[in-house]
Amino acid sequence: MRYTLLIFIVVLGSTACKKDKFTTAPQIKYKSVNPSTLSGHIPIGTPGGQAPPILTIHVTDSEGDIGFVDNADSAYIFVKNLLANTKDSFKFPDLRGVTGKNFECDVDINVTSLMQQGPRPAPKTDSLFFEIYVKDFAKNKSNTIVSGDPVLFVF
Predict the structure, then answer these.
(1) Structural domains of the chain, count
(2) Is 2 part of any domain?
C-alpha cells in the first residue's frame, strides 16, 4: 500500500508538471540560421553575392490564429539584432488554408534587414544573435527566444 501511494504521487507529479505543447499564446523554438558566416564586403542577396541569412523557428498555437489576412489584423514575427540593437517585424504569409486547431509549422525569416555591424572599427568579426517573439491575431505574445547560433559578420 505504501509503495502504491508513492508511485501514484510520482506519476501525478510528473504529469502535472508537463507543459502543454499547444497554448493560447503562441510558443516558439529556435531551429537554425543559415548561412552562419557572411562577409560585409559582398552584397547580400544580389546576383553573384551571398545568400541571405535565413533564421528558422518552430511555431505552435492552439487556436491557429496566425497568418496574414487582407484588410484584417495580421500576425507578426518580431526580430531584434542584439549587437546593433536594431529591430524589424515581419508578417506571416497567408495561412488560411492550413491553419486550424493545434497549429504548428517551421517559419523561415530573412534577416538581411537586420545585418548591421557593431560599433567597433573594421577589420573585425561580429557575432550577431537575434531575439525573436511572435504575436497572433488576438495579440497574444509568444515566449521570447534568442537564436542559439551566431551569424558571424566579417568586415
Answers:
(1) 1
(2) no
Beta-strand runs (E) in the chain: 27-34, 37-39, 54-61, 76-81, 86-91, 103-110, 125-128, 130-135, 145-146, 151-154
Concatenating the DSSP letter of every residue in 82-97 gives TTTTEEEEEE----TT
Q: What are phi and psi of 146, to 5 degrees?
A: -120, 135
9 is a domain residue: no
Does residue 3 lie in a domain region?
no
User: Structure pTM?
Assistant: 0.78
Rounded Cα distance, 95 and 124, in Å: 41
Mean pLDDT of the chain: 80
Q: Which cell is 143 given?
A: 515566449
